[in-house]
Specification:
CATH architecture: 3-Layer(aba) Sandwich
Distance between the termini: 68 Å
Radius of gyration: 19 Å
Helix content: 25-40%
Low-confidence stretches: none
Largest sheet: 7 strands, mixed
Strand content: 15-25%
Structural class: alpha/beta
Number of strands: 12
Number of domains: 1
Mean pLDDT: 94
Length: 268
């Protein structure tokens, strides 16, 4: 067993070294070029037919991870959007909360010198991440200018309560980035309490810790009902198919950006 593990590590190092000789793919974040990205759990060939039939928009399972900096496709996509939108200067002197904070994005935000930067998660894995429930955020109303929640809401049982909390803690005019997998085929969200095991959740939702398949229509409607103004940034308006393939991002995934305005029944 020990010899097997040693040989596997050696083989992996050789593969990574050879992969680095390629030029047909590039990580947008670290700039390394190579033959291919790391697949997620074997890639699209292992994605269940049910998920494929929903035409689900989520991670690019065939171009998922960078072997060199560890970035995932959905994070590289965020960097690409933020560069195109010249979004980075917004972080300067801003009050920011970031759920499930990705290390590379956190580093970039910190380099922008925000006035406040809260890194949050229900299950923190390092000391500088606060333990915060997305459905019960322990901060006052209108605390933050920017809220980042990248592929988190699909894990939250009461996502509508989470949306209300996000709205509550955002300042008027504040921006939230709320990426999540969804289906453009479904009219309504697909979830059922009987789907209650890792095996069933993987089969019907695409991953063992997901709790639903979002319908694009119902998810967007829920954002509007929570009080947000939708400002969806279309991938196709900024990137070509060739760029999508080269940088390993999903050409079907748009940037879900919303803006807080006062509720209609607000007296302010």
């Amino acid at each position: 067993m020990l010899i097997y593990k040693i040989m596997r590590k050696i083989a992996n190092k050789i593969f990574i070294a050879i992969n680095r000789l390629g030029r047909n793919k590039q990580c947008y974040i670290c700039g390394e070029t190579f033959f291919r990205f790391r697949k997620w759990r074997g890639g699209s060939k292992n994605v269940h037919l049910w998920i494929k039939s929903l035409n689900a928009v989520g991670s690019d399972t065939d171009n998922f991870g960078c072997f060199y900096c560890g970035s995932f496709d959905r994070l590289r996509h965020i960097f690409m959007f933020f560069d195109k939108l010249d979004f980075w200067p917004r972080f300067s002197n801003a009050h920011i909360i970031h759920f499930a904070p990705e290390a590379l994005l956190s580093k970039k935000i910190e380099e922008c010198h925000p006035a406040q930067y809260v890194k949050a998660d229900m299950f923190p894995w390092v000391k500088d991440i606060e333990k915060i429930d997305l459905t019960n955020i322990a901060y006052n109303d209108e605390t933050f200018d920017i809220f980042i929640c990248n592929h988190v809401l699909e894990h939250v049982p009461d996502y509508k309560k989470a949306l209300r909390e996000i709205y509550r803690v955002l300042q008027k005019g504040g921006i939230a980035i709320l990426q999540t997998p969804y289906s453009r085929l479904l009219v309504n969200n697909f979830e059922d309490p009987g789907i209650n095991t890792d095996e069933l959740r993987t089969l019907y939702y695409g991953q063992e810790d997901h709790v639903r398949c979002f319908s694009e229509r119902q998810f967007f409607q829920g954002l509007v009902e929570a009080g947000f103004i939708l400002t969806i940034v279309k991938h196709a308006d900024y990137f070509t198919e060739e760029q999508s393939s080269y940088f390993g991002v999903n050409k079907a995934e748009d940037l879900i950006m919303v803006v807080k305005e006062p509720l209609k029944n607000s007296k302010t």
